[in-house]
Amino acid sequence: MATPQLTGTDFTLTPRAMVSADPAGALNLKQRDFIGLKDFTRADIEGLLDLAAAMKAGQNNEKYLQDKFLGMLFTVASTRTRISFQVGAKQLGGHAEHYKAADLQLSNHETLKDTAAVMSRFLHGIIVRMYDMNAYGDGHGGIHVMANMADVPVINALDDKEHPCQVMADLLTLKEKYGADYKRKRVVMSWGYSPRQKSLGVLHSMMVSGAMLGMNVVFAHPKDYELDEEYISFAKDQIRKSGGTLDFTNDLMEASEGADVIYMKSWKSLKLPKDKEEIFKNEIRSDWCVSAEHFKRANPGAYYMDCMPFIRGEQVTTDVADGVNSIIYDQAENRLHAQKAIMAAIIGLKPGVNEK
Ligand code: CP
Fold it and tell me: Residue 156: CB within 6 Å of ligand 1?
C-alpha cells in the first residue's frame, strides 16, 4: 500500500501513525537540497521535527543511509556541525567523511562547479559549510553553485545567509521544552559582541521558520545591524498567513520584557565597513551582554539559548550561560537528531532498498 502523504497537522494528531509508516518517505523530500528554510513548507518543517523527535526517542531506528557515503566540505571551523553529521550518518548506517578546502584541489584553483560535479559522481550527498564574511552572500551563492552541478542532495551546514540545520535543532529544543505551545512563545534573538565577524545564518533561518510556524520572534540589535531585507519581507508575508509576529528593537532590556526565551547570537553588520564596525562594536559591547538583569524582565522560567560557540562574560554572563535555565547543551545535542531526520528524508532509502 502506498504511504499516505501526511501533513504537519496529521503528525500532530496521529504521531504514532507517522512513526510506524515510512516517515522519511512520507515527508516527500527525497533528493531535495537543504540549503535554506525558505524553500520548505510549514508541513515539511513540522514533519522533520516529528521525525527527529521519534528518532531521539528511539521510536525510529531505521538505517536510512545503509551503505551510503556522504562528503562534508567545510571551508571554516566547526565542532557541533561536523561531529553531529558524522555521528548521525553512522547511526543511520552510512558514513560521512570531512574535507577541508585545503585537502582538495580547490586549494589549487579547481572550480567549485568541477568540484561539485566530481564529488557527486562518488557520493550520495554533499554537506557544505562555506562563507567569507567580507563578501556577504558569496557563501550562500557558492552552495547554490554546487547544488546546481551536483546530481545528489546538498545540505547547508552554515553559510553567510542561513544555518537551517542549527535552527531545526533549536525548534526541536523549543518543542521539547514548551510542547506545541512553543509557537506562541516570545523568543528574543539578541545581538552580542564578538571579536569575529560572524554569520547572520541563525537569525535568518529562525526568522523565516518562526514566521511560518506562527511564533512571536523579536530581534534586538544595535543600529546598523539590521538583517537582510530579503528574509524580512519573506517572513512578513508568512506571518500574515500564520498569525505569528515579527518585531525589531534597538533595546534589549525592553525586548526582554515578557520573554520566554532569550537567544544570544553575534553577527556582523551588513552596513558598516569592517574598520568602522570594529570601533563601533567595541564602544557598545557592554550594553549587549545578556545577564540576570534581562532575565528579571523575562517570564519566570524563561530559557537561555545559544547556538555556541560563545565567550562567557563577553556576550552572556557566566551565571546565565551556566544557570539552570540555560538549554545550550540540549540545543547542541539536538543537532544530531535534527540532522538525522534531514539526511533520512532527503538522502535516505527505505531500509533494504538500494537505489544507487
Ligand atoms: N553552532 C554551530 O554551528 O557550531 P559549530 O560551528 O561548532 O559547528
Answer: no
Structural domain includes residue 321: yes
Asked if residue 344 has its Cβ within 6 Å of ligand 1, the reply is no
Atom of ligand 1 nearest to the CA of 76: 6
**Total residue count of the chain as it appears in this document:** 356
Residues 145 and 189 in one domain: no
Residue 352 included in any domain = no
In a domain, 27, yes or no: yes
Q: Is the minimum distance from the CB of 203 to ligand 1 under 6 angstroms?
A: no
Q: Which protein residue's CA is at the shortest distance from atom 7 of ligand 1?
A: 79
Same domain, 191 and 56: no
State the distance from the centre of ligand 1 to the C-alpha of 305, rounded, in angstroms: 14
Residue 59's domain comprises 16-160+336-346
pLDDT for res 21: 55
Q: What is the pLDDT of residue 2?
A: 36
- The alpha helices in 14-110, defined as continuous H runs, are 15-20, 23-26, 42-56, 80-91
**Ligand 1 neighbourhood includes 343 CB (under 6 angstroms):** no
Rounded to whole angstroms, the Cα distance separating 243 from 346 reads 29
Same domain, 139 and 35: yes
Nearest-CA neighbor of 341 among 9, 50, 81? 50
Find out whether 37 and 164 touch, Cβ atoms under 8 Å: yes
Q: Are residues 82 and 147 in the same domain?
A: yes
Q: What is the CATH number of the domain that holds 73?
A: 3.40.50.1370
| Residue 268 grid cell | 556582523
User: Does residue 2 lie in a domain region?
Assistant: no
| Total tally of structural domains belonging to the chain | 2
How far is residue 185 from each of residues 32, 155, 262, measured CA to CA in Å? 31, 29, 11
**pLDDT number for residue 350:** 63
Give 10-residue mean pLDDT values along the chain (356 residues). 32 35 80 98 97 97 96 97 98 98 96 98 98 92 98 98 98 97 96 95 98 98 98 98 97 98 98 97 96 98 98 96 98 98 91 47
What is the DSSP track for 117-166?
HHHHHH-SEEEEE---TTSTTHHHHHHHHHHHH-SS-EEES--SS--HHH
Close Cβ partners of 190 (under 8 Å, ≥ 6 residues apart) = 220, 221, 252, 255, 262, 263, 264, 265, 288, 290
